[in-house]
Design brief:
Blueprint (H helix, E strand, L loop, with lengths): L1 H22 L2 H65 L20
């Protein structure tokens, strides 16, 4: 019912506006129509700019998420490498006996 009232109100407003326009002198009426046309054109331009802005915003947000993911992966890799280097630097050095290159070879009988 509220929608009907709104549309009825709009219809009444438009009808009364047309009555007022007919009562205006011709030059003022033309200027008013031109003003209305310019207003509608401007509104279309604003809506188009808004839509383009939203598209650009979504594209930039997607790019930012991708960049953040790449940076995060790189930082994880760098942190892992640094931790590995730190562990190696802190690890106590023990002298390990090097194993022989292999068993001593027996001389072959000729």
């Amino acid at each position: 019912m509220a929608a009907r009232r709104g549309s009825q109100w709009t219809a009444d407003f438009e009808r009364n506006l047309r009555k007022l326009e007919r009562q205006l002198p011709a030059p003022v009426r033309r200027m008013l129509r031109q003003l209305g046309k310019n207003l509608r054109d401007t509104q279309r331009q604003v809506e188009a700019a808004r839509a383009q802005g939203e598209v650009r915003l979504h594209r930039l947000q997607k790019q930012l998420r991708g960049d953040a993911t790449r940076v995060q992966k790189q930082l994880r890799g760098d942190a892992t490498q640094l931790i590995r280097q730190l562990r190696q630097a802190v690890e106590p050095k023990t002298s390990r006996a090097r194993p022989a290159a292999g068993r001593a070879r027996r001389s072959r009988k000729k």
